Amino acid sequence: MMFRMFVVNILFLTNIYSYELPFSTLGNSIIDANGAVVRMRCVNWPGSMETLMPEGLQHNSIDNIVLIIKQMNMTCVRLTYSIDVTRSSDLTVYQSLSRLNLTFALQGFMNNNPSLINSTVSNIFNTVLDTLGKYNILVLLDNHVSKAMWCCSDFDGNGFWGDRYFDVEQWIDGLKFMANKTIDRPYVIAMSLRNELRGVRQNQPHWYHNVVRAILEAISFVNPRLLIVISGLNYDLNLSFIRSLPVQNLVPISIQKKIVYEAHWYSWSYYGLLSDCNHIKDTI
Ligand SMILES: *[C@@H]1O[C@H](CO)[C@@H](O)[C@H](O)[C@H]1NC(C)=O
Ligand SMILES: *[C@@H]1O[C@H](CO)[C@@H](O)[C@H](O)[C@H]1NC(C)=O
Ligand SMILES: *[C@@H]1O[C@H](CO)[C@@H](O)[C@H](O)[C@H]1NC(C)=O
Ligand SMILES: *[C@@H]1O[C@H](CO)[C@@H](O)[C@H](O)[C@H]1NC(C)=O
Ligand SMILES: *[C@@H]1O[C@H](CO)[C@@H](O)[C@H](O)[C@H]1NC(C)=O
User: Fold this and answer.
1) What are the mean pLDDT values of the chain's consecutive 10-residue runs (284 residues total)?
2) 3-state secondary structure of 153
3) 16-282: what fold?
4) Centre of ligand 5 from the C-alpha of residue 163, in Å
5) d(CA 154, CA 192)
6) What positions does the domain Glycoside hydrolase family occupy (predicted)?
7) What's the pTM value of the predicted model, to 2 decimals?
8) Would you list the domain boundaries of the chain?
9) Counting atoms of ligand 1 from 1, which one is nearest the CA of 73?
10) Measuring from atom 1 of ligand 4, which residue has the nearest CA?
C-alpha cells in the first residue's frame, strides 16, 4: 500500500512539473508559463447529445473512464457540450434519462455512478472536470452545438449564427456559463467558441463580429487565462481569410497570445485520402 501511494505521488509530481500553467501561444506553438513548448494528446469525450451530459456514464464510473483515458496515454480531453445544457442546468440525471425513455441507460447509470443519479446535468460536468483534474488531464471545453444532438449537417439548425437553434445571445450566455466552471479549475486550459461553422448563412463579416464578441464578452471576460480556440468556415476546412485579417488584430494585446485556430481534416473532407495536411495548410 505504501509503495502504491509512493508511485502515485511520483506520477503526480512528474506531471505537475512537466509544465507550468497558464498556457499561451508563440508562433504556431502552445507554450507554458516558462516558455516551454507544450504538446498535448487529446481524446474527444462527447457531452453534446440529448442527455445533456458527458456520454458513457451508464457503462463505467467517471473515475474508471478517466483511468482508461490515462492508460491510453492521453494527456488531454476535448469535452464537448451543447448550449442546451447551460439552459437546463438544473435538470437531474434521473429526469434527463427518464424524459428520453432511456430505461437501460438509467439502470446502467445507477449501477456505475449511483451517487450521482440525483445530481444536475451541470454538476455532472463539474464532477467529470474535477475527476480529469484529479488525474492531471488537461481539458479543452468545446461548444459543439446549441440544440443538443448529433453534429453536423448544413441543415441541422446549429451551423451558423441565426440558424434555427443558433441564437447569438443564448450562445454568449452559454459560453459564460461554462467559462465560469474554468475559473477554479486551472487544468481547463482552453475553450473553443464553436465547432464547425457551416451552412447557407455562413459569411465572413458575421464570423468576425461574433468571434470577437464571444472573446471579449464571454471567454476572456470571465477567464483571461484561457486559450481561445476558433473554428473556420465550411466545417472548419477554410481559414483562408485570417491571412489578410487575423483575429489577433481585433483584440487587445493581452488576448493576442491566447488565440488558437482550429482546422479539421478528415479523409472525407473533399481533399481525398492524402497522407499529409498540405491542402488544409494551403487554405490558411
Ligand atoms: C503509453 O506509454 C508507455 C510509456 O511510454 C508505453 O509503454 C505504452 O505502450 C503506451 N501505451 C499505449 C496504449 O500507447
Ligand atoms: C416516452 O414514452 C412515453 C410513453 O410510452 C411516450 O409517450 C413518449 O413520447 C416517449 N418519449 C420519448 C422522448 O420517446
Ligand atoms: C435520489 O432521489 C430519489 C427520489 O427522491 C431517492 O429515493 C434516492 O434515494 C436518491 N438517491 C440518491 C443516491 O441520492
Ligand atoms: C459560477 O460558479 C460558481 C461555483 O464555482 C457558482 O457558485 C456560481 O453560481 C456560478 N455563476 C454563474 C453565473 O454560473
Ligand atoms: C474560403 O472562404 C472564403 C471566404 O468566405 C472564400 O472566399 C473562399 O473561396 C473559400 N475557400 C475555399 C477553398 O473554399
Assistant:
1) 38 57 96 96 97 98 98 97 98 98 98 98 98 97 98 96 98 98 98 97 98 98 98 92 95 98 80 59 63
2) coil
3) TIM Barrel (3.20.20)
4) 20
5) 20
6) 61-270
7) 0.90
8) 16-282
9) 1
10) 180
